[in-house]
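Backbone-to-sequence.
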């Protein structure tokens, strides 16, 4: 046991000095970071890209985007050398920064995302829905960065949800698997004051920050994240975010890195939690936002030390097998008790979007999903033998009565390999190999993606044309005003009007000469005669 950290915890707990310790560390942090700059984040072009106006990345540790409309994202690279750990901490994506978020994941070659906040907590928007959840959209396309995020599966549990996506580069066609871990057991209570800046408008609000009472679920979640290959050195750093990317995310970094250090040191007393915290705070401002989070970090490390061997054994590479649901027998039997149900794309009624009040594009997606449902329902062969595990339910009248037949969809797991669907109104079924099924679905996905992308490009072309027409009209008005202002100059400078110009000049000279002759010569002669 790390006696130093445990003794510190017991002493602070006895003296009730968590608030005093937290503010002392905050003061020391302020002194250490006097020379740190965040000028890039404060640029006018980047202010609207920050969720909170006082949570900004330092210039020297910020993540720089390589290709795209901007190189700025509110994200920081965190390096803990003693633990040989690298993390990327970022804010919860905004509607205007979701594409930058996925661009960063692609460019940093990250394969695991750790989300530590709910989308909405106590009525406050904590994070934008930046990923496809299949109940709303099966995929998200970001044209500006040429990336597509496709929903693969979702596995909700009691205190976390595991999602899996495919991230596709639409320029090259390269596809990368992404595992998304969503921790949902963090209580939405506590006290802190933050400033929110959305859409360029700053406003003050109360952000509710707290910490779990027990570290058990958090440590189990950490073990799952490690087991998924989040820290595989062949890939980029895992992406961690909460709402601001400093409180819960900082807690995760502090607990994980210190547990790694404790596992690889002969003298645990040499490891100081406050020194590690001071080090990571030099790389992103404000990590650990409240003294409750600081106390929880101590508690999680103390509890984690008791199962240190199990935590270390949970480290695993990021493999294709880890990307499959229930890929190994160890997790399949162990995790089924935790998970409320397993959710697959085509086997949920709420995954099918209703056909009422949809735009043309959503109608196309809806039709495509029904087509995929039919194709998937027809490729399986019914099994007469009793399955090992059975999770059945009925899809009745899927979309506005268009499908009047009922399908009894029974998902059988036989050694994690086979599944069956038995249509109650269909007597004949076709048997197709799984490879052919995957190929057919991939083809449908590609066609759907291409069609939707083409439609978006057409809409963009129409909008661009309208913008160009408006610009041309404005330019014509400006040119007309200039012509009216410079009409005299245009009259003199036009080649076609040169004869008219010459005629006018001659006429003017003739008139002037006549007046001069009449005034001086004719009148002068009359005066001379009178004399």
């Amino acid at each position: 046991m790390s006696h130093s950290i445990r003794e510190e915890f017991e002493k602070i707990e006895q003296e009730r000095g968590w608030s005093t310790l937290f503010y002392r560390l905050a003061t020391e942090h302020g002194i250490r970071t006097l020379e740190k700059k965040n000028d890039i984040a404060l640029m006018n072009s980047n202010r609207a890209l920050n969720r909170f106006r006082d949570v900004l990345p330092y210039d020297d540790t910020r993540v720089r985007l390589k290709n795209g409309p901007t190189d700025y994202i509110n994200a920081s690279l965190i390096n803990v050398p003693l633990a040989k750990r690298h993390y990327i901490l970022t804010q919860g994506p905004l509607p205007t920064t979701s594409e930058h978020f996925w661009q960063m994941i692609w460019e940093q070659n990250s394969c695991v995302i750790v989300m530590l906040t709910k989308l909405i907590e106590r009525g406050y928007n904590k994070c934008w829905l930046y990923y496809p959840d299949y109940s709303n959209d099966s995929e998200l396309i970001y044209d500006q960065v040429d990336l597509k995020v496709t929903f693969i599966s979702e596995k909700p549990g009691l205190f976390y949800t595991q999602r899996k996506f495919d991230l596709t580069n639409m320029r090259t066609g390269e596809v990368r698997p992404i595992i998304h871990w969503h921790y949902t057991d963090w209580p939405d209570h506590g006290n802190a004051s933050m400033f929110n800046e959305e859409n360029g408008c700053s406003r003050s609000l109360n952000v509710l920050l707290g910490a779990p009472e027990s570290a058990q679920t958090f440590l189990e979640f950490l073990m799952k994240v490690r087991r998924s290959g989040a820290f595989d050195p062949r890939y980029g750093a895992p992406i961690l975010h909460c709402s601001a990317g400093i409180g819960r995310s900082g807690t995760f970094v502090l607990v994980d890195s210190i547990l790694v250090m404790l596992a690889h040191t002969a003298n645990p007393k040499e490891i100081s939690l406050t020194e590690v915290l001071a080090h990571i705070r030099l790389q992103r401002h404000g990590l650990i936002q409240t003294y409750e989070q600081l106390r929880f970090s101590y508690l999680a490390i103390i509890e984690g030390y008791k199962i240190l061997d199990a935590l270390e054994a949970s480290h695993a590479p990021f493999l294709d097998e880890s990307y499959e649901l229930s890929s190994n027998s160890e997790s399949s039997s162990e995790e089924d008790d935790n998970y409320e149900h397993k959710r697959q794309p085509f086997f949920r009624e709420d995954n099918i979007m209703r056909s009422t009040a949809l735009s043309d594009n959503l109608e196309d997606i809806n039709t495509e999903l029904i087509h995929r449902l039919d194709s998937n329902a027809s490729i399986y062969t019914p099994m007469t033998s009793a399955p090992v595990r059975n999770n059945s339910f009925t899809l009745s009248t899927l979309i506005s009565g268009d499908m009047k037949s009922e399908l009894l969809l029974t998902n059988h797991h036989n050694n994690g390999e086979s599944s069956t669907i038995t249509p109650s109104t269909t007597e004949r079924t076709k048997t197709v190999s799984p490879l052919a099924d995957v190929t057919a679905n991939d083809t449908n996905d590609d066609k759907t993606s291409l069609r939707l992308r083409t439609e978006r490009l057409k809409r963009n072309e129409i909008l661009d044309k309208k913008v160009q027409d408006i610009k041309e009209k404005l330019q014509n008005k400006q040119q007309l005003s200039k012509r009216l202002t410079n009409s005299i100059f245009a009259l003199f400078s036009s080649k076609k009007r040169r004869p008219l110009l010459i005629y006018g000049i001659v006429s003017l000279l003739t008139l002037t000469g006549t007046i001069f002759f009449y005034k001086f010569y004719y009148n002068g002669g009359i005066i001379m005669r009178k004399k």
